[in-house]
Amino acid sequence: MSATNQEVETKPPLDGRTWRQYFPKGDLWVFGYGSLIWKPPPHYDQRVPGYIEGYVRRFWQASTDHRGTPEQPGRVVTVIERGFWETLDDPHAPFEPASTNRVWGAAYHIPSSHAEEVHDYLDVREIDGYSVHYTPFHPFSPDSAAPKTALESVSSPITCMVYIGQPSNPQFLRDPARREPQDVAEVISRGHGQSGKNTEYLYLLEKALEGIGLGSADMHVTDLVRRVRAIEGDGEANKEEEKAERDVRLSLSEVAKGVEADLSE
Fold first, then answer.
1. Is the CB of residue 172 less than 8 Å from the CB of residue 85?
2. 213: phi > 0 → left, psi -120 to 50 → alpha, else beta; which?
3. Catalytic position from the list 7, 81, 126, 206
4. Which Pfam families did the record assign (predicted)?
5. Could you tell me which residue, 99 or 51, shows the higher pLDDT?
6. Residue 223, Cα to own-chain centre: how many angstroms?
7. Is the distance from CB of 46 to CB of 259 less than 8 angstroms?
8. pLDDT at 212
9. Which residues contact 232 (CB under 8 A, 6 or more apart)?
10. 27, 34, 31: which is closest to 58 by C-alpha?
11. Which residues, 6+ apart, have CB-to-CB distance to 148 below 8 Å?
């Protein structure tokens, strides 16, 4: 996938630590569009909801570790540059709004004292096919009472580091048949890895996106939820969705407490 005009281009340094070129003060901004929304990185002192532009979010990345195994890979999300995505067959394409290229999620600010540590942590966490990119992030807040420090850059984009599973990576679903929504849903319904059930990942993402402030997840996610519910049956699906909602609420409440504590210090 080629870089979009949204993505900042530069030659990487010899040690591979590209983030230093984008964050000369030594701090770090990280954007999460998947599990980072409900499972934040350590040592952050700000969490800001918002979006990046020029991409679509899809469950088109195989997971051989966190939500699957090498023998039975699960499915997790990546973001795909919209221009490239438009060249692919996607049954969900008619439902993707042509008027917006936005992928919603949350950005985290990491102070300089922990930037190296968090970068190393994320490299390990996102090791299964993801690579580091940089793109403008647009903050958004539906809550005018939110802490000022979390909103001080709302009027202008923030450069963020983001982990993307590009179409060239070995875990990307190159076979169009494996990208069919029903096939993805069936794999998710069976998947299980070191971080738990693949269905849990899907339901957690749905609830986390609802908690961003827009009230709903994107259509691709909600359609997969519907399909997985049909496979699991209402009884099991209801239990898992209710647990996901509780877990996301707990996670977000801990996020709020942590940011409040940092602001009071």
1. no
2. left
3. 126
4. ChaC
5. 51
6. 17
7. yes
8. 85
9. 189, 199, 240
10. 34
11. none
Report the predicted TM-score, pTM, of the whole model to 2 decimal places: 0.84
- Residue 4: band (very low, low, confident or very high) from pLDDT cuts 50, 70, 90: very low
Q: Is residue 265 among the annotated active site residues?
A: no
Q: Average pLDDT for residues 211-217, to the nearest whole number?
A: 77
Q: Can you tell me which residue has the tokens 């990345």? A: 61
Q: In whole angstroms, give the CA distance from residue 51 to residue 40.
A: 16
141 against 236, higher pLDDT: 236
Place of tokens 């969490």: 47
DSSP string covering the chain, please? -PPPTTS---PPPTTS-THHHH-TTS-EEEEESSGGGTSPPTT-SEEEEEEEESEEEEEEEEESSSSS-SSS-EEEEEEEEHHHHTTS--TTGGGS-TT--EEEEEEEEE-GGGHHHHHHHHHHHTTTT-EEEEEEEEE--S-TTS-GGGTTTTTS-EEEEEEE--TTSTTB--SGGGGSHHHHHHHHHH-EETTEEHHHHHHHHHHHHIIIIISS--HHHHHHHHHHHHHH-HHHHHHHHHHHHHHHHHHHHHHHHHHHHHHH-
pLDDT digits over 20-57, tens only? 889 999 999 999 999 999 999 999 999 999 999 999 99
Q: Which residues are paired to 79 by β-bridges?
A: 57
Structure confidence by residue, pLDDT tens digits, 140-160: 866 544 444 434 444 589 999
